[in-house]
Task: inverse folding
């Protein structure tokens, strides 16, 4: 059997084909190491992306939060004062109810 012609494949398809041939020629040990390395790289990139997203999340102030809650129908002035006191205590570090 002769060599197959690659003239009908695009450059992108040729690159994919070369990678596939390379993977098929790997030994079991090489293949396991390759997959483990790729998984570790993906895990690392995911952790780094998560750190960047966490830092960029906007913070809401306690005043804005209470203001937003006060617009909910059914929450009166007494309930709002209880929510403000609870929020102030929690922000001060007092976790006892």
Result:
């Amino acid at each position: 059997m002769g060599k197959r012609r690659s003239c009908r494949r695009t450059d992108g398809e040729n690159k994919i084909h070369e990678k596939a041939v390379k993977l098929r020629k790997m030994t079991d040990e090489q293949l396991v190491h390759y997959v483990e390395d790729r998984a570790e790289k993906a895990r690392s990139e995911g952790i780094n992306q998560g750190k960047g997203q966490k830092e960029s999340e906007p913070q809401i102030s306690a005043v804005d939060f209470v203001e937003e809650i006060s617009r909910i129908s059914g929450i009166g002035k007494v309930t709002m004062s209880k929510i403000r006191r609870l929020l102030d205590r929690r922000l001060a570090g007092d976790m006892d109810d």
About this structure: The chain has a mean pLDDT of 82.
